[in-house]
Amino acid sequence: MEGVLLTGTATAALEGECVRCLEPIEDEILARLQELYVYPEQHTKAAEHDDRDLDDETSLLEDDLIDLEPLLRDAVVLALPFQPLCQDDCPGLCTECGARLADEPDHTHDAPIDPRWAGLEQLQQDPQD
Ligand SMILES: [Zn+2]
Ligand SMILES: [Zn+2]
């Protein structure tokens, strides 16, 4: 089948947030492109004879021009990380207070206080003098 085989790479700026700690992420991704664009006349001709491997997905040249947008969009979406992380071993957020653990590796809390005794903590924190 005659047409134009397009190959190439594209880079795209990526903006999002870490799925664990919600830290904003900016990155660049590289997407590889490869697609055969068929002349519309060839496509019609081939379809008359044999429509086995032709479907609506066939990319067509339009007046000798190629519309790159659908190809680019698909390639970039496929290259996107499924679960973007700010760093590979992002420890996420503290379940207790929401602090970002990557910023505070030694972050700890005292054992959670039984809500029935929480009032006592208040007393303890009051200045004594
Ligand atoms: Zn993170
Ligand atoms: Zn915490």
UniProtKB/TrEMBL annotation:
Compositional bias of kind Basic and acidic residues: 104-113
Start and end residues of each stretch annotated as Disordered: 104-129
A family per Pfam: YceD
InterPro entries according to UniProt: YceD (IPR003772)
Name of protein: DUF177 domain-containing protein
Species of the source: Nocardioides alpinus
